Amino acid sequence: MHHSSFWHSRSVLITGASGFVGSWLTLWLVEAGAHVVALVRDWVPQSNFARARLDERVTVVRGGVTDLDTVQRALNEYSVDTVFHLAAQAIVTTAQRSPLSTFDTNIRGTWNVLEAARLCPSVQRLVVASSDKAYGTYPEDQLPYREEYPLRGTAPYEVSKSCADLLTQSYFHTYFRPAGRPFVGITRCANIFGGGDLNLGRIVPDTAWALVNDRDPIIRSHGQHVRDFLYVLDAVNACIT
């Protein structure tokens, strides 16, 4: 990816900045000369964010998206121009075990970001990370998903992403488009893989870890599924675009 002068000196808030995709996006924007404000809830020493010492190159706001006051303060205090909302409970099995915290983070967290953006006059662009899981389950003869397909998640993670996606569309049509700002983009990425993915419940990092440690990889199904896998820097490029 080529760095764009568009981002130089621009104030950008990234929620979930220390996460898997968020760390790579943060690094890209820092290298492009942006003034990055990173909303960080948990400090994970093994993360790319910590290992690359990105905390020394950005403004770190400690807190989570479930606290509206924290999000509003970050946007207003640093005159944020562009928001990338990546913070989420992103692990399907964790969402299955803990639906309430997943709904709290993924749904309430999203409406907090949307409301804070609505009330902050400096915000001009907003990118919200949805997921292909927001579509729910469709019959094989209707695959691959098309953008206009209805969002109809059933499992907790799917539902949380369907709701976050629809909330974003609701704010856009009701508040943002009539006001002429902010511009809104929604990403619905498939399974993302790449360096720094610490979730060994995912097949790519777990298989790599198995090979490094000289053990057999775990085959998780009958092996006949066809799935999309998206390299993490391509996901970052989608957000930037």
Report on the structure:
- It contains eight helices and eight strands.
- It has helices spanning 20-31, 48-51, 68-77, 92-97, 99-119, 156-179, 203-212, 232-240, and strands at residues 11-15, 35-40, 59-62, 82-85, 125-129, 183-187, 191-193, 229-231.
- It has 241 residues and is an alpha/beta fold.
Structural class: alpha/beta
In round numbers, the mean pLDDT is 94
Separation of termini? 11 Å
- Total DSSP E strands: 8
User: Which percent range describes the beta-strand content?
Assistant: 5-15%
Residue stretches low in confidence (pLDDT < 50, at least 5 long) are: none
Strand order of the largest sheet: 3-2-1-4-5-6
Give short descriptive properties of this protein.
alpha/beta; about 15% strand; two-stranded parallel ribbon; 8 helices; 6-stranded parallel sheet; about 240 residues
Give the topology.
Elements lengths: L10 E5 L4 H12 L3 E6 L7 H4 L7 E4 L5 H10 L4 E4 L6 H6 L1 H21 L5 E5 L26 H24 L3 E5 L3 E3 L9 H10 L16 E3 H9 L1
Parallel strand pairs: 1-2, 1-4, 2-3, 4-5, 5-6, 7-8
Helix pairs in contact: 1-8, 3-5, 5-6
Brief sketch in words of this structure:
Helix content is 40%, strand content 15%. It is α/β, with parallel strands linked by helices and 241 residues long.
